[in-house]
Design brief:
By secondary structure, the chain is α/β, with parallel strands linked by helices. The chain has nine helices and 18 strands. The chain has two domains: about 1-185 and about 285-325, 3-Layer(aba) Sandwich (Rossmann fold), CATH 3.40.50; about 200-280.
Length: about 325
């Protein structure tokens, strides 16, 4: 099921809309399917995962199970909390609150706990280390609100996991999930950011400014693209809206989807102002997974949640599979 969606992807990140969105269930399914196809997997996490119960809600969590031969990069204090026999491959110089990152190979099947680096640059080093130890596919388990995991500089593809723990309202969860999926499905367009925050492009000319209003002398003659360096926040979008009529024929490009930190209202306002919004580096969103169970007790109807997410994605023009992994766990 999931394996077929990963065709051509070497590194996949599982991004959660919230805690308890079902990421670990997705990860376990991915592990099982990849191992069934004879692949050596590499695992790490941007936070902590694999513990038996959630440290915040005190609810039971699925543990992470691997087979012999799996490669794991985790914090040294968590090595003793799993039950696999392991071969230590390397003790890295990357540190976390739970100790140094250690690369190990599972010598027996069993459960592992993951604790990795929280900095994207460190995650790249860990990913490269797992690939160097000949992992066929690296899987990065996400943490709450860390969309930076979806950056194309870190992963080839992403899975977006959503669940009832996000909000008591199934309609809000479905709508916000579809909006996030929409951002991660934006088309890749040619461009490279400048040194300053904004770069306007007109023909073969480029003009940079730290503020959108500073572009006015250049864009009054027309601009084809406005490239934004760094995070595109509500305030950045507001600056672009200020120059209104001068960018109505220009497309606004972010570096990648992980930099789009906009509320949907700001995003829609920006779309009405310019010719469209895209990214300079695209992300391959493989699928959206849904978990109707809430750690806070306010569960959704499984069929209702699935259908509402499907409809919300369709309204947002996002065409990716929606999967309730647990409902299909024996598929």
């Amino acid at each position: 099921m999931l394996f077929e969606l990963m065709n051509g992807i070497r590194t996949v990140s599982v991004i959660g809309m919230c805690k308890n969105a079902g990421k670990t269930t997705v990860l376990n399914r991915l592990i099982r399917e990849c191992e069934a196809h004879g692949q050596t997997i590499g695992l790490t996490s941007i936070g902590r995962d694999g513990e038996r119960s959630d440290l915040v809600t005190n609810t039971k969590k699925p543990e992470i199970f691997v087979s012999r031969g799996a490669l794991i990069a985790t914090a040294e204090q968590l090595l003793k909390l799993g039950d696999i026999s392991q071969e230590i491959l390397e003790v890295s110089g990357l540190t976390t609150p739970l100790g140094r990152i250690v690369f190990v190979r599972a010598m027996t099947s069993g459960y592992v706990q993951l604790g990795g680096a929280s900095i994207t640059e460190h995650q790249k080093l860990i990913r490269d280390g797992l690939l160097a130890f000949v992992a066929d596919r690296v899987m990065i388990d996400g943490a709450i609100s860390r969309k930076s995991l979806g950056t194309p500089a870190l992963c080839d593809g992403a899975v977006l996991s959503s669940g009832a723990s996000y909000d008591p309202s199934v309609d809000k969860t479905a709508a916000d999930t579809a909006y996030t999926a929409r951002l991660f499905s934006l088309a890749e367009e040619a461009g490279s950011p400048g040194e300053l925050r904004f770069t306007a492009v007109r023909g073969g000319e480029r003009f940079e400014s730290e503020a959108a209003l500073g572009l006015l002398p250049f864009i009054k003659g027309g601009a084809e693209r406005i490239l934004v360096r760094g995070a595109v926040t509500d305030s950045i979008a507001a600056q672009l809206v200020q120059v209104g009529k001068h960018i109505k024929n220009a497309r606004v490009l972010a570096e990648d989807a992980s930099r789009l930190l906009l509320k949907q209202a700001s995003f829609e306002r920006l779309l009405r102002t310019c010719a469209g919004v895209g990214v300079m580096k695209g992300t391959r969103l493989c699928c959206v997974t849904v978990n109707p169970f809430s750690a806070y007790g306010l569960h959704y109807g499984a069929d209702e949640f699935f259908e509402k997410v499907c409809r919300a994605l369709e309204r947002n023009g996002v065409r990716v599979p929606v999967i309730n992994v647990e409902a299909n766990d024996n598929a």
